[in-house]
Design a protein that fits this description.
Layout lengths: L1 H16 L27 H6 L1 E2 L6 E17 L12 E14 L2 E13 L10 E16 L3 E10 L21 E10 L2 E10 L15 E13 L3 E17 L2 E16 L4 E14 L2 E15 L8 E9 L9 E2 L23 E11 L4 E11 L7 E2 L5 E3 L8 E13 L4 E12 L1 H6 L5 E11 L1
Parallel strand pairs: 13-15
Antiparallel strand pairs: 1-2, 2-3, 2-22, 3-4, 4-5, 5-6, 6-7, 7-8, 8-9, 9-10, 10-11, 11-12, 12-13, 13-14, 14-16, 16-17, 17-20, 18-19, 20-21, 21-22
């Protein structure tokens, strides 16, 4: 770990000193914009690999890039004392991509390697030695300054909205991709996507993440900007089919539809994000009726030292009302960001009431500090609690305790430059009456140090 750490540090310094203009890395790396390099007649070594002309036409070029992430985690009382503790484990993730633009055609190819050292019985989300993570082809039918119509087919990452329902799973070690066909149209202040996919089921090993026949995911997602009064609005429909799903009161083939909307503003002193989703469908002769309402608002004090940002997030996420009947009200978060309530992601967004105040400080251009506090209750007493991947952690059938517990998290971020950053996150989960009744109910603690290098 020590040698790899110093290598990342050295690469971060070298790449930063060789860039004439600071690069901006997108969360979806295929959205990195390198067009500013077209006009540069003299490029540094780094800029030469970011923009490789393929002829005299400036619409023909290639680019390479990637990232490496090391994350050391130490935990106490795994699963609140019901699983054996590791002495500490190291997760490492390596991504390498190549992008080729040939006029109206564009290909993007990316490899991913995720390794887990020191972790007892790692899952495929922790360890997937080497596989093709993305490989897709774009065809641009329209590509103007204010209008674009593109068909994308192949293995690809997808991310929408606040990542409550569709995300790349950045927090865990292996990011998520989909075998998909997607058509998206942009014009002026709005964009609309339609897609049909098979989500990838990661497998440990090398080049063995095959086509997943056990899950289908489809839908449409529209974003409209500059809406009077509300600023931005998302409207979406999402469909999910899985050959087998497991809930506290239902097991079997799941067919679930979701309709939702999101109103948001992410600029200025006031920011907000309000979202509502309703789900319907069926699972093993039970009818589905799930829902969630979430709100987030924060205010930034720009004229106070360290520009503190105070926020409050609340969520109500439905659980099953009654065990043994013909209905299932448990909300399914579909494919959310893995680190939903903190980096280690103990609890997923199902059958929850959550109150979450937070405060963040910009200590300098490079340093930031964040503190947040979560309080969790079960939304219904008949349902259990779930992990972010919808694995049932504890059944709720034999207890009437509602209070799950509270969680305090702090994180310190240091961005050395645009290429290299470090994060130290610590978390303490104070187990509540529900966890003490269904399991050991011990308080949980973790600390994680992350180093991430991008180029």
């Amino acid at each position: 770990m020590k040698n790899t750490f110093f290598l990342l540090l050295l690469l971060g310094i070298i790449f930063s000193s060789n860039a004439q203009q600071k690069p901006v890395f997108q969360r979806l790396r295929y959205e990195d914009d390198l067009t500013y390099l077209k006009a540069d007649s003299i490029k540094t070594l780094y800029e030469r690999i970011k923009y490789i002309p393929l002829g005299k036409n400036d619409k023909y070029y290639a680019s390479i890039g990637g990232e490496a992430r090391l994350q050391y985690t130490y935990t106490v009382n795994n699963k609140w004392g019901d699983e054996a503790d590791d002495d500490g484990y190291l997760l490492s993730r390596y991504l390498f991509h190549a992008n080729v633009q040939l006029g109206i055609f564009r290909t993007f190819f990316e490899l991913q390697s995720s390794l887990a050292n020191g972790k007892t019985d790692p899952s495929p989300v922790d360890e997937n030695q080497l596989d093709i993570h993305q490989a897709f082809l774009d065809i641009d039918f329209i590509k103007e300054e204010n209008e674009q119509l593109t068909l994308r087919s192949g293995r690809q990452e997808m991310m929408y909205g606040s990542q409550r329902l569709i995300a790349v799973r950045e927090g865990p070690n292996s990011r998520l991709a989909f075998d998909a066909v997607k058509l998206f149209y942009k014009k002026n202040n709005w964009q609309s996507d339609a897609f049909f996919t098979h989500p990838i089921a990661n497998k440990q090993g090398t080049f063995n993440d095959s086509f997943n026949e056990n899950a289908k995911f489809w839908g449409s997602y529209t974003v409209i900007h500059k809406v009077p009064f509300i600023q931005n609005i998302d409207l979406y429909y999402l469909g999910l089919w899985k050959s087998r799903s497991v809930f506290d009161d239902a097991i079997g083939e799941e067919n679930r539809q979701s309709i939702g909307t999101r109103i948001w503003k992410n600029k200025g002193t006031w920011k907000y994000d309000f979202e509502g989703v309703y789900q319907f469908g069926n699972i093993n002769q039970k009818t589905i009726s799930g829902w969630t309402l979430s709100s987030f608002a924060c205010y930034t004090f720009e004229n106070i030292k360290y520009t503190p940002e105070i926020g409050l997030k609340t969520e109500i996420i439905s659980g099953d009302k009654s065990s043994g009947d013909a209905h299932l009200q448990t909300f399914n978060p579909l494919y959310p960001r893995g680190a939903y309530f903190g980096l280690v992601a103990l609890i997923g967004p199902s059958n929850l009431i959550d109150v979450h105040p937070s405060i963040n400080f910009s200590l300098s251009e490079k340093w930031a500090l964040g503190i947040d506090y979560d309080i969790f209750w079960r939304q219904t007493l008949s349902d259990g609690i779930y992990a972010p991947n919808m694995q049932l952690l504890y059944s709720g059938k034999d207890t009437t305790e509602r209070f799950i517990g509270s969680q305090l998290i702090s994180n310190v971020n240091y961005d050395m430059n645009n290429h290299l950053g470090f994060t130290l996150e610590t978390g303490w989960f104070n187990a509540g009456s529900f966890l003490k009744e269904v399991g050991s109910g011990k308080d949980y603690f973790y600390a994680a140090l992350t180093a991430q290098f991008k180029f």
